[in-house]
Specification:
Length: 331
């Protein structure tokens, strides 16, 4: 049978990236629901973030060690970059779950999903162009999220919780941007497991420093934590796979669908109801996601640019084995 052409291979790669990013959005959208269920079961928020991260990192490392040990190979610069991204993401996770504990889930999700704006800023600082069509999809998606998050009955606005969620979005975008660069040279499972390990060390240190808050004391608490751990591990694998094939910004735009999933999950699992305005927002969000088929600049893995030239020099010095090199799209 004749082999596929480079164009067919490239289209297949982009298709896998889009599918992975959309699936990641589904799983990520369920995470705040599971976290809220853990809170309702009396689990301290710091226990939630520490337990889910440490467990996800441990389970993923064990699965790779048993079934795919080749993905545990990592060269020196890779471990440094994953450690940096994981530390930043770990701090962001602490802010996220702390803010989620203080705010309504819908408002918290609205503030957090502003992270593509910060990611776009990082792209511009890195000297990478952002097309007008991508900016249009970003504005459409953020406007849709605003409509989706419109629910009545909010209590007094909590500025501390709001700032924590915004800070979480800033740090998450930065970690996603850094991981997008290292994924140019490394398989996504490798980046996922070592980034999660660095996150686990970061949040674990915060957990110990704050006096080891109580573990779940009831079955509903452990069940919610098990679901949240599984969602954490699976969503990271899918997200980094999407970033590898699409780049950080396009994967993040597709991941905006997590807000829609979160609202629908709240409707089904928590008994909430959607208003007409929220359904309008859901339709606009779906449109923003579907418009990805008209993007002309996706599928090219990002290379380090001006403010990350030191990292590019390290990549050249510590190039990975040939079997770990990724397929490049045709020029």
């Amino acid at each position: 049978m004749a082999g596929r052409s480079p164009i067919e291979d490239w289209k297949s790669t982009v298709s896998r990236g889009i599918t992975a990013s959309l699936l990641s959005a589904v799983v990520l959208g369920l995470s705040p629901i599971f976290a809220k269920q853990a809170y309702q079961a009396g689990v301290p928020w710091l226990t939630v973030v520490a337990l889910r991260t440490v467990a996800a990192a441990g389970v993923l490392w064990l699965l790779l060690f048993i079934f795919a040990p080749r993905y545990l190979y990592i060269y020196p610069v890779g471990i440094v970059v994953c450690a940096a991204a994981g530390f930043i993401n770990g701090l962001g996770s602490l802010l996220y779950y702390g803010g989620l504990h203080q705010l309504d889930a819908s408002l918290a999700q609205l503030l957090y999903t502003l992270y593509p704006i910060f990611l776009t800023l990082y792209y511009r600082l890195d000297g990478r162009p952002v097309s007008g069509f991508t900016l249009f999809r970003l504005c459409l998606g953020l406007g849709a999220i605003y409509l989706v998050a419109q629910v009545g009955g909010h209590t007094t606005f909590n500025w501390i919780g709001a700032l924590m969620m915004l800070g979480s979005g800033v740090l998450y975008a930065l970690s996603l941007f850094i991981n997008g660069h290292v994924l140019y040279e490394m398989p996504s499972p490798t980046v996922t497991v070592y980034t999660l390990i660095a996150m686990a060390v970061t949040v674990g240190a915060a957990y110990v420093f704050n006096g080891l808050p109580a573990l779940p004391a009831t079955s509903p608490g452990w069940q919610a934590m098990a679901l949240l751990t599984g969602a954490t591990m699976l969503s990271r694998l899918l997200l980094f796979l999407g970033v590898k094939h699409l780049g950080s910004l396009q994967a993040a735009l597709l991941s905006l669908g997590e807000s829609l999933v979160a609202v629908l999950a709240a409707l089904i699992l928590l008994g909430e109801k959607l208003t007409v305005i929220q359904w309008l927002g859901a339709a606009l969000l779906a449109l923003s996601i579907l418009l990805v088929q008209f993007e002309k600049s996706i599928g090219a893995p990002p290379r380090p640019r001006p403010w990350l030239q030191w990292l590019e020099a390290w990549f050249i010095s510590f190039s990975p084995p040939p079997e770990l090199e990724t397929r490049k799209p045709p020029k």
